[in-house]
């Protein structure tokens, strides 16, 4: 039933409770993982004004994240995947660098990976693990930016860190050989870094790859509502997390919500999502906004995939990696810079 709008509410459609089966159209491995995810408990965060509650919640999230990783997992995975892993700093920012074995020193291509985790987790050992996996998947040198995070460092600190690392990378590498990649909050930061870089007169990277990007902190996209409760990770219950990151700033600011920005001159961009990803609307809308701005933008949507392409090693995840690898390998070429950079 659709009701007319008044001063307090918009029209809406009421749906009866319904069962949504795991589709047979995906691989058996993905079907099993999707069934497991159905039982995943939601994470609820405190009110944005509850500082003590936020610290306790973030600490619990990080503890849970690290509990899934065996000690020394990043270095162990690097060895298993044929990757050399080192760590350094760009100013105060920790940067993990993963280089595939046999990498030619003359090959200057580099991927700056901005990890996901809702601006509150995904750093430290987890960032190192993700850097290793990215390098092994893409066959490229990857630098994982371990940016500052909430609760101690909400906006704009994480974005400042990402831009600082990109600015430093430009002193070593021609822009056409640099890619920015990110998932979820990391994709938000990657897109915002491009906008900040352009606005500050910096040359833009040769390519950008964004998976399940959070690009509208107003949470006005359709799938925030239509997929609420179906995506085990992203839903309206996550709104307070975005409020905490913004900390009172206008959520329509393009550096917080890049979908509202001037996207002219944006580098070639690959975007990915799934039909059960709560951020599918953010992804689709950003793709359309890029296309309207004349950007070389490519959208890949996978059947029944939830937020962050989390299918537990199913064949669909290999497809995702192959698409990103082909996209970046094609565009990161010496002397080839982003359009209109």
Structure description:
- This protein is 35% helix and 14% strand.
- It is α/β, with parallel strands linked by helices and 341 residues long.
- The protein has one domain: Rossmann fold.
- Helix 3 (73-80) runs parallel beside helix 4.
Short description:
With 341 residues, the chain is of the alpha/beta class. The protein is 35% helix and 14% strand. The protein has an eight-stranded mixed β-sheet with strand order 1-2-4-3-5-6-7-8, sandwiched between helices.
What key phrases describe this protein's structure?
alpha/beta; 14% strand; Rossmann fold; 341 residues; single chain; 35% helix; disordered N terminus; 8-stranded mixed beta sheet
Sheet/helix structural class: alpha/beta
Instruction: Give the CATH topology.
Output: Rossmann fold
Shape field: globular
CATH superfamily: Alpha/Beta hydrolase fold, catalytic domain
Helix content: 25-40%
The count of domains is 1
> What portion of residues belong to β-strands?
5-15%
Order of helices and strands: HHHEEEHEHEHEHHEHEH
């Amino acid at each position: 039933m659709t009701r007319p709008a008044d001063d307090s509410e918009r029209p809406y459609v009421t749906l009866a409770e319904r069962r949504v089966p795991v589709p047979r159209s995906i691989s058996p491995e993905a079907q099993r993982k999707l069934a497991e995810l159905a039982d995943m408990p939601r994470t609820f965060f405190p009110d944005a004004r509850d500082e003590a509650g936020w610290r306790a919640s973030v600490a619990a999230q990080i503890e849970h994240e690290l509990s899934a990783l065996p000690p020394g997992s990043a270095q162990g995975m690097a060895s298993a995947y044929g990757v050399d892993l080192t760590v350094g700093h760009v100013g105060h920012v920790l940067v993990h660098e993963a280089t595939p074995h046999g990498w030619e020193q003359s090959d200057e291509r580099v991927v700056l990976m901005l990890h996901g985790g809702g601006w509150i987790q995904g750093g430290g050992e987890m960032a190192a693990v993700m850097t290793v996996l990215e390098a092994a998947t893409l066959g490229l040198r990857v630098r994982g930016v371990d940016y500052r995070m909430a609760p101690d460092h909400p906006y704009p600190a994480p974005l400042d860190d990402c831009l600082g690392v990109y600015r430093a990378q430009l002193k070593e590498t021609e822009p056409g050989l640099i890619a920015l990649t990110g998932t979820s909050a990391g994709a938000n930061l990657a897109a915002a870094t491009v906008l900040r870089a352009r606005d500050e007169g910096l040359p833009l990277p040769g390519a950008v790859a964004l998976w399940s990007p959070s690009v509208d902190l107003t949470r006005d996209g359709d799938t925030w509502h239509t997929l609420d409760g179906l995506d085990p990770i992203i839903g309206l219950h996550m709104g307070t997390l975005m409020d905490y990151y913004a900390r009172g700033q206008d959520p329509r600011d393009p550096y917080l919500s890049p979908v509202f920005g001037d996207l002219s001159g944006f580098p070639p961009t690959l975007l990915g999502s799934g039909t059960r990803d709560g951020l599918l609307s953010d992804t689709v809308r950003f793709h359309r906004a890029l296309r309207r701005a004349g950007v070389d933008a490519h959208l890949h949507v996978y059947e029944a995939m939830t937020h962050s392409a989390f299918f537990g090693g199913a064949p669909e995840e290999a497809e995702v990696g192959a698409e990103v690898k082909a996209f970046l390998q094609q565009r990161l070429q010496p002397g080839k810079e982003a359009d209109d950079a």
